[in-house]
Amino acid sequence: MDETGRVEQYIRGVLRHLYLRDEYRRRVADDLRSHIAEAVQKKPVDEVLKDMGHPRKIAAEIMETYEDDYEKMGFLNAIAYAQHVRDFNVKSRARVGGWPLVHVATGYSESGERNVAKGIIAVGDTAIGVVAMGPVSVGVIAVGALAAGILAFGAVAVGLLAALGAVAASVVASVGSVAVSGGFAFGAVALARFYAMGAYARALYYIGAYGESTIVPIWMRSLSEGLGTRAIPFVVILSVLGFVLGLVPLVVLQLRALGKNGRGIR
Amino acid sequence: MTGPDKELLRGTLELIVLSIIARQRSYGYSIINTIKQQTEGRIELKEGSLYPVLYRLEDAGAIESVWHHPEGRGVPRKYYRITPEGKKRLAQLRKEWHDYVRLVTALIEGGSKDG
After folding, report:
1. Helices (DSSP H) in chain B: which residue ranges?
2. Do A27 and B28 touch (CB under 8 A)?
3. pLDDT (tens digit per residue) in A72-84
4. Cβ–Cβ contacts within 10 Å for residue A75, how many?
5. What domains can be seen in chain B, in order of their start residue?
6. Per-domain residue ranges of chain A
7. Among B9, B55, B67, B80, which would you mutate to test the A interface (most chain A Cβ atoms within 10 Å of its Cβ)?
């Protein structure tokens, strides 16, 4: 690899660990490029890069300054950085009704308390907000491994209006491998007060592999006939969808933290 | 001899960098070298510590940067120069620093007298 290639590789190494908006990443890349170009006038490039230390250390020093500054990081970078450092707590300056517009919080605080994300958009190990995402999330719209909200999506989802997940429970409508609802349940195992469809279905009105109630509403009949033999795969797909949605905050963000590869900023 | 404590240095970096830029327009590499030379190698600033200070000062309007692209094979440099706002900021930081040194000195000397 030639000298320019080695320098660019080094800069990419720094950017890979820099969880800042592109504007700042570009500034750092430009300054590093200029700094190294200056330094190689006096000694070989390998020596210059060695003196500068591991790219991760440069990035870590910069991040130490900015890790409380949501505005410099932006939403996705803040989440990715939270995955990277684990103990993290940052809020946007913008607030709505006393709550931060965005709050990302994971791990523990300096005093050893668990960080809880509370914001209009809340992301964290435990998240409470209008839109809450995290392993444990509570919100109007909650997405997480354990999600509770008006609309809940998760491995285990509990929703007031609707729940979608591997195990889904709600007042109005649930869809999942195991779906329990006061109104409508659709799942491999579907239990509801009024309407249930599934392999094993029990409700006032139900259609299942093992039979159906004597009076079935027309819409249920149409839905059942429309789905036909696809009913079970349909349930499985929806359940998996709910499960995957619940894991989105974990998986996607983890991948982002791992896969940040210093997008060729020049 | 060792350099100053990292936290102590961090707390005074803005003052140090602004003072250097106030004396003459400077670029990142030259600021690092100036600090190293003037402190006889006792303070070696890393790029990761310098850049955030420069960006913070620039974002606050205390300094401004201009890229200089020399003709031929010369190295492009980003020069920083102090602004009128920066001069006010520097005066304030200097005053705070001298006050702080005076207070800490009084505390230290008072302590040694008592001891």
Report:
1. 6-23, 28-38, 47-59, 84-114
2. no
3. 999 999 988 988 8
4. 14
5. 6-114 (1.10.10.10)
6. 3-66, 73-122, 134-255
7. B55
